[in-house]
Amino acid sequence: MKEQEIPYKIYLSENEIPKYWYNVRAVMKNKPAPLLNPGTHQPMTSDELSHVFCDELVKQELDDTDELIPIPQEIRDFYKMYRPSPLVRAYCLEKQLGTPAHIYYKFEGNNTSGSHKLNSAIAQAYYAKKQGLKGVTTETGAGQWGTALSMACAYFGLDCHVFMVKCSYEQKPFRREVMRTYGARVTPSPSMTTNVGRKINEEFPGTNGSLGCAISEAVEEAVSHEGYRYVLGSVLSQVLLHQSVIGQETMTALDKYGVTPDIIIGCAGGGSNLGGLIAPFVGRELKGGPKYQIIAVEPASCPSMTRGVYAYDFCDTGHVCPLAKMYTLGSEFIPSPNHAGGLRYHGMASIVSQLYHDGIIEARSVEQTSVFKAAEYFARVEGILPAPESSHAIRVAIDEALKCKETGEAKNIVFGLTGTGYFDMVAYQQFNDGAMNDFIPTDADLEKSISQIPHFPGNLA
Amino acid sequence: MKEQEIPYKIYLSENEIPKYWYNVRAVMKNKPAPLLNPGTHQPMTSDELSHVFCDELVKQELDDTDELIPIPQEIRDFYKMYRPSPLVRAYCLEKQLGTPAHIYYKFEGNNTSGSHKLNSAIAQAYYAKKQGLKGVTTETGAGQWGTALSMACAYFGLDCHVFMVKCSYEQKPFRREVMRTYGARVTPSPSMTTNVGRKINEEFPGTNGSLGCAISEAVEEAVSHEGYRYVLGSVLSQVLLHQSVIGQETMTALDKYGVTPDIIIGCAGGGSNLGGLIAPFVGRELKGGPKYQIIAVEPASCPSMTRGVYAYDFCDTGHVCPLAKMYTLGSEFIPSPNHAGGLRYHGMASIVSQLYHDGIIEARSVEQTSVFKAAEYFARVEGILPAPESSHAIRVAIDEALKCKETGEAKNIVFGLTGTGYFDMVAYQQFNDGAMNDFIPTDADLEKSISQIPHFPGNLA
Q: Which of A30, A124, A263, A328 could form a disulfide with A347 if both were Cys (CB 3.0 to 4.6 A apart)?
């Protein structure tokens, strides 16, 4: 098929929405390490996990053998309201850069949550409903995950209780109002309604909260109320599984036009978007297909892969969750609050961490002013105002396209555009005013937080 | 074709983006009355208009004979970045309402301007560029038009100067920052940089500004700088012409599935969306096709059609623009500033006014709390958080669907969903807090503002 026949936007039909989630763990030679009980250091059992998580989601969390996991029809029906998402050929960006590269991006921002988070939120809400639960609890920082979960719970008539980090609750009232419009209860964290919240408020009067504290509150709230479970928007293998619809649609669209990607780029905070985008490509590669250059892009302010260690660590600051083996900066690491984007998580999904450890993917870190330069450039040329998170991938896509301009190579570059920046205008304003800075942790900062990773036999070897 | 084959979202291919704008004036028996020179009360000539507007746009403004006006390839290329927009079958809404009606909506919100405004902005920027101009000026209230124009100007490398009503500039900083991100200069109005702005600031120290004042400033700025012209986002016939892409795509999508709409609904402020949505349907009807029930929905707080008069009136509060014949509440009419939606214009596009006057379309007014109830309901059921403006159409679509539930009729209801409400969360917050009220002008209010419509022979007969 000739290049000029590729439209600006490749839309698949609704019949082409994946019928299965793609479980890349099934084809990984080295499986991601299991979650550990923080007390016994033994793998978490299904029983232990099901106190916190929905039963079916526990099964998915533990399943590293089934390559294809059927997507229930009810979830596919919901997907039809906003999927398939377009794979866009960035003709205008290519032209403006003067690059021979062909650039494609999978755009997940055309839904009210504004990001890919809805793909997993609807699945988690569905299984909670199917289990006959009353509701779910979660935490949210910037608010994308909380918004997505609120939408999913509204659809299935589930109660949704979101613990929103206090500083975001106050500084991002609009995100909060979107959640309320979808019927969610939004509580600023730390609150006075949980033990852990009261304890933190007593110890640190006037604290603005943190994601770690909000997680602890959401977990406590779930386990102490009949008919509730806790749900999480990233890091977990089940979340990456649900997000595989991104990668599968991307692959179907590219296959349709005979395009083989040379480079696949995704931003990486907890790893949900990147893990979902690359899953089927990694699967194809591991089964003898083409070798792709896969680049995980993280912020220089929170460089878990490029400067962290591979070890078992706590997933939350409050240390109430299981231990996960991952690239981590230590659960005490607090990225600069001045960093405008998301991607502020100290660790990385176990699947992504293992793939990185095995050299199947690479990682790169970028500084935030250069990320916002790329974001502004992209907005003006391609029309879409990107989320700060997504703009990390844009930065590297542009860098790679400019390398092609030097070498004359017509590489196919594919990146994930996870969402829109409509609720991030405070960050854009900083950038527009020339008031944005870069924040890079010192070696001493990292040594300190890494030193707090739990020491036990085999860990931090 | 069987009903079940209709997908949730009907996406046309990029080849199906219209190649012509549809000029409904060509088939109207009673043409919209021409713009008048406010001094002489004679029809504005092409020469007079071209001091303010781009030459090609003046031609389009005056053309009431050519039914099809070719869309330049450069504009169609830009349209490909976000069009065709989806025509959505509202299966979930139908099910939730329990109505036998079939509901469709044309969704124009999947672009960064968040609304249909981009369809005309890119056309106006293109003609300005083609004429060799340096830039354009405009006014914006809520900010959707200013955002759309900023995007269009960034694409063509034109300077863009937006006069933003001061209260919006301060209360909607995020809209302002989107415009700045696209490189626009945004000036709070009234400013100290124009004569009219200085005069108003002197007369009314501390004023928050008004759309009328911002228009006057933008026009002065354009005519007093070499290489600049003024552009407008609604009311004018050229704008409705550009917006006909909405209606044409809707018609193509419905024709493809053999669906004939019984009712077509659009919100109406200045008339740009409604005029664009209905243009080809009115054309088909006037040429002997089926009779459609077309409903223009306006806010009860600014009821230009349902409670105004049909007369020549000023388009702006500052009285610097030509007179237009339209349904109007008088140019001195100021809708309650507490009204959360847009649609706060005292008049109505001449084309829409004439169609209403001739009984080809009907008009209905709705109150804002009932509009926000419909908006919240729609958001939860269909997933999309609608703009307050668009939600006026949702309100009436739901009302009509519920009538069908009573009568058992399976009518086809089509409405325009012009945009998203992401930058309108202050209004949603009011609604969520139960702090929203309805504002309906008294008869005395309207008599007063209507009495200020200019009296001259033949007007206000």
A: A328
The answer to whether A173 faces chain B, any CB pair under 8 Å, is yes
Pairwise CB contact (< 8 Å): B383 & A82: yes
Residue A379 at interface with chain B, using a CB cutoff of 8 Å: yes
Segment 92-111 of chain B within 8 Å of chain A by CB: 92, 110-111
Contact between A107 and A384 under an 8 Å Cβ cutoff? The reply is: yes
Burial label for B309, CB within 10 Å (0-12, 13-18, 19+), is middle
Strands B68-70 and B20-22: antiparallel
Residues of A in contact with B159 (CB under 8 A): none
Whole-number Å distance between alpha carbons of A397 and B408: 55
Output the pTM of the full model: 0.96
Chain A residues touching B154 at Cβ < 8 A: 379-380
- Of residues B114, B183, B432, nearest to A177 (C-beta): B432
**Could you tell me how many CB contacts below 8 A there are between chain A and chain B?**
118
| CA–CA dist B93, B376 (Å, integer) | 12
Distance CA B319, CA B213 (A): 9
Cross-chain Cβ contact B425/A177 below 8 Å: yes
pLDDT, tens digit only, all 461 positions of chain A:
455 589 999 999 999 999 999 999 999 999 999 999 999 999 999 999 999 999 999 999 999 999 999 999 999 999 999 999 999 999 999 999 999 999 999 999 999 999 999 999 999 999 999 999 999 999 998 899 999 999 999 999 999 999 998 888 887 889 999 999 999 999 999 999 999 899 989 988 988 888 878 998 999 999 999 999 999 999 999 999 999 999 999 999 999 999 999 999 999 999 999 999 999 999 999 999 999 999 999 999 999 999 999 999 998 877 888 999 999 999 888 777 767 777 888 999 999 999 999 999 999 999 999 999 999 999 999 999 999 999 999 999 999 999 999 999 999 999 999 999 999 998 999 999 999 999 899 999 999 999 999 999 989 86
**B456: number of Cβ within 10 Å:** 10
In the three-class reduction of DSSP (H, G, I as helix; E, B as strand; rest coil), residue B320 is classed as coil
Long-range contacts of B130-135 (CB under 8 A, 24+ apart): B130/B56, B131/B54, B131/B55, B131/B56, B131/B229, B132/B227, B133/B54, B133/B158, B133/B227, B133/B228, B133/B229, B134/B158, B134/B159, B134/B225, B134/B226, B134/B227, B134/B228, B135/B159, B135/B160, B135/B161, B135/B227, B135/B228
Residues of chain A contacting residue B181, judged by C-beta atoms under 8 Å apart:
376, 379-380, 385, 428, 431-432
CB contact under 8 A, B423 and A422: yes
Rounded Cα distance, A341 and A339, in Å: 6
Q: Tokens 């349904």 label which residue?
A: B327
Listed residue (B72, B393, B117, B87) closest to B252, CA to CA = B87
The number of angstroms, rounded, from the C-alpha of A164 to the middle of its chain's C-alpha atoms is 17
Q: Residue A337 class from Cβ within 10 Å (0-12 exposed, 13-18 middle, 19+ buried)?
A: exposed
Distance CA B430, CA B388 (A): 12
Nearest CA-CA distance, residue B2 and chain A, Å: 16
CB nearest B112 (choices: A14, A180, A383): A383
- Counting Cα atoms < 13 Å in the Cβ hemisphere of B308 gives 34
For residue A248, what are its two tokens?
A: 């599968």
Task: Please give, rounded to a whole number of angstroms, the shortest distance from the CA of A383 to a CA of chain B.
Answer: 7
Nearest alpha-carbon partner for A368 in A298, A456, A285? A298
| AA identity, residue A360 | I
CB-CB neighbors (< 8 A) of A151 in chain B: 380, 383
Site of tokens 């790893």:
A271
Interface residue A171 vs chain B (CB under 8 A): no
- Looking up tokens 């008009």 gives B363
Helices then strands, counting H and E runs in chain B, come out as 19, 15
